[in-house]
Design brief:
Blueprint: H1 18-26, H2 34-39, E1 49-59, E2 62-71, E3 80-85, H3 92-104, E4 114-118, H4 123-128, H5 150-162, E5 168-174, H6 177-191, E6 205-209, H7 215-225, E7 239-240, E8 243-247, E9 250-253, E10 269-275, H8 284-305
Parallel strand pairs: 3-4, 3-5, 5-10, 6-9
Antiparallel strand pairs: 1-2, 2-4, 6-10, 7-8, 8-9
Domain Peptidase M14: 28-306
Protein name: M14 family metallocarboxypeptidase
InterPro entries: Peptidase_M14 (IPR000834)
Length: 306
């Protein structure tokens, strides 16, 4: 094991304490606005949709409304779809793909299913282009035991209180080069472990819940996205992010057991989408469009299969 440290915060082999978390937090700089990019956009949606505040995030002087968009004409006889973005705030197309879906396509599902769309689960991370929350906790490992942090607990409690039982849940993510040079080293440092570099897949892929993978559902998303952006090939071991490839662009991963957002409901059809925005073969607009295509394909598949 290398003895030199690989991250500016922490001591090799020692998990972080409060001092290290404070040092890490002081390195995080606001780079964009949740109020402008998300809150303002949500004020101009089709009349079939309603914006509701399900909680508030307070981090020092910063206060963020936690917002969801729901179908105004909610019908208990219809199935429900849950779409979440920005669980990792730095994953831009998850947030903007969810917003684009609301603006351009949500109306197509009026009278067919009930929509619940949460475009930005973690606004503090969105503003700082950061994977973790204010306390250096990964939100996508926190959707268990009623929610381990405010961001997960507020959403889980609200979903439960509303009696939302989604048929389908699409959680929109990205895999980026910053995973390799920032977030993975930070994770190893935080936990006092050795940093083992990983290969970042070049392209779009999906992670189906290994507890209930629904292979045909996952393949339908890949088929819808492939005309828009390239699909990630497997590495030399036949894996994507360390998981065995099941079919073109599809892997299985634990969701509920690790506290991932895609696993906190009993949705029959659930997935985590992963876009690769740093590829020279794509751009931000295509990444947003890929997320939208995946959402539409997931909703259409679930409606046809129920």
């Amino acid at each position: 094991m290398a003895t030199s440290h690989f991250y500016p915060v922490g001591t090799p082999g020692q998990p972080w304490g409060d001092d290290e978390r404070t040092q890490w937090r002081q390195r995080q700089i606001v780079q964009r606005s949740h109020a402008r990019d998300v809150v303002e956009v949500l004020q101009d949606l089709p009349g079939t949709l309603e914006v509701v505040q399900y909680g508030e995030l307070e981090t020092g002087p910063d206060r963020y409304p936690l917002l969801a968009v729901v179908s105004r004409d909610w019908d208990e006889a219809l199935p429900t779809a849950l779409v979440t973005g920005g669980v990792h705030g730095y994953e831009t197309s998850g947030v903007h793909g969810a917003l684009q879906f609301l603006q351009q396509h949500a109306g197509d599902y009026s009278g067919r299913l009930n929509l619940v769309v949460v475009p930005c689960v973690c606004p503090w991370g969105y503003e700082r282009i950061q994977r973790w929350n204010h306390d250096a906790v990964d939100p996508n490992r926190s959707f268990r035991n009623g929610g381990l942090i405010v961001e997960s607990a507020a959403l889980m409690n609200w979903i439960d209180a509303q009696g939302v039982k989604p048929l389908v849940h699409l959680d929109l993510h990205e895999t980026t080069d910053s995973d390799a040079h920032e977030f993975d080293p930070a994770l190893a440092s935080r936990d006092g472990k050795a940093w083992v570099p990983e290969t970042i897949p070049d392209g779009f892929y999906v992670i189906g819940n290994s507890e209930n993978p629904e292979h045909a559902f996952q393949k339908a998303l890949i088929a819808a996205v492939e005309p828009i952006t390239h699909i990630a090939p497997a590495d030399s071991q036949g894996h994507l992010v360390g998981l065995p490839l099941q079919s073109h662009g599809v892997v299985w991963g634990e969701s509920r057991s690790i506290g991932a957002c895609a696993g906190f409901t009993d949705a029959r059809f659930a997935t985590t989408t992963e876009v690769y925005p740093d590829s020279p073969r794509t751009n931000a607009a295509e990444c947003n469009a890929a997320q939208v295509a995946a959402v539409r394909a997931g909703l259409d598949f679930a409606l046809a299969a129920r």
